[in-house]
Amino acid sequence: MTGSNQTVISEFLLLGLPIKSEQKNLFYALFLAMYLTTILGNLLIIVLIHLDSHLHTPMYLFLSNLSFSDLCFSSVTMPKLLQNMQSQVPSIPYAGCLAQVYFFLFFGDLESFLLVAMAYDRYVAICFPLHYTTIMSPRLCLSLVALSWVLTTLNAMLHTVLMARLCFCADNVIPHFFCDMSALLKLSCSDTQVNEWVLFIAVGLILVIPFLLIIMSYARIVLSILKVPSARGIRKAFSTCGSHLSVVSLFYGTVIGLYLCPSADNSTVKEMVMAMMYTVVTPMLNPFIYSLRNRDMKGALRKLFFKRKTIFSV
């Protein structure tokens, strides 16, 4: 197709979630409450870790970055979803769509790498407790965080540049609530073979390999516990790893179910519901998981409220 008979697309229309008009206000209030909970919950985690010196450890360095990633990941899609629910024309500019693709990939991939770093931290803490401070040195921890940021930046930039080279002709309707890459590739009237191959390789490198590394870390943890089985050791392992395992299950369960095990009928509604799970629900639940199942976080929260109570009582 030559450039003379192509229509330049300046914006896309996001169909959004299939919600009946009489239920829109209810769902708008629900999604707004979920988004505000996500923002406040993750901000609270970051503030607690910053204020409490007892939480200045490798695990909480990774957790503060994970909370920041969750906060931003949800912010990539939710504000636009909320805006479009109140709009007569739920559109997004072409440049805004590319920006959404970039930041969606960036913060989604960042979460995957941070979960691997946290799994390695738990592995060292349980399997090599006497050498923990030596192995998990500040230099190594900062290097792992920096490497996660660099790799996700490069991957997100690569996909965004490849997407920007594609041409979009007459059809500009995206059957989703955000600019999903697979939906954009279907709309393009250019050859998308390169994009599809790069996406396939990236899924293997950024989703499958990190997930396998996490599984390996926990397999080694289980073997280490079984060597010296004791009720105290098992309780310690669950208290140390329970929160992280819950987050891993939430994140990878929905992502793998959506991208690696798609349904036979290729239901768009199912895809949107599962995307809502890992873009909205998981970032919202993570602060509750880490605060309710973690003694250190609950202690830091109590100290923060106790200080505020003391200040107001003076």
Q: Could you please describe the fold and organization of this structure?
A:
This protein is mostly helical and 314 residues long. The protein has ten helices and three strands; from the N terminus they run E-H-H-E-H-H-H-E-H-H-H-H-H. Helix 3 packs antiparallel against helix 8 and helix 8 packs antiparallel against helix 9. The longest helix is centred in the C-terminal third of the chain and has 35 residues. The termini are far apart. The N terminus is likely disordered.
Layout of secondary structure:
Layout: E1 11-14, H1 24-51, H2 58-85, E2 91-93, H3 94-127, H4 132-135, H5 138-164, E3 173-174, H6 181-187, H7 193-227, H8 231-259, H9 268-292, H10 295-313
Parallel strand pairs: 1-3
Antiparallel strand pairs: 1-2
Helix pairs in contact: 1-2, 1-9, 2-3, 2-9, 3-5, 3-7, 3-8, 5-7, 7-8, 8-9
Distance between the termini: 75 Å
Bin the strand percentage: under 5%
Averaged pLDDT: 84
Run of helices and strands: EHHEHHHEHHHHH
Largest sheet: 3 strands, mixed
Please tally the β strands and state the result. 3
Number of continuous helical runs: 10
Low-confidence stretches: 1-5
* Global structural class: mainly alpha
Q: What spatial order of strands do you see in the largest sheet?
A: 2-1-3
Helix content: over 70%
Coarse morphology: globular
- Our Rg estimate from Cα atoms comes to 22 Å
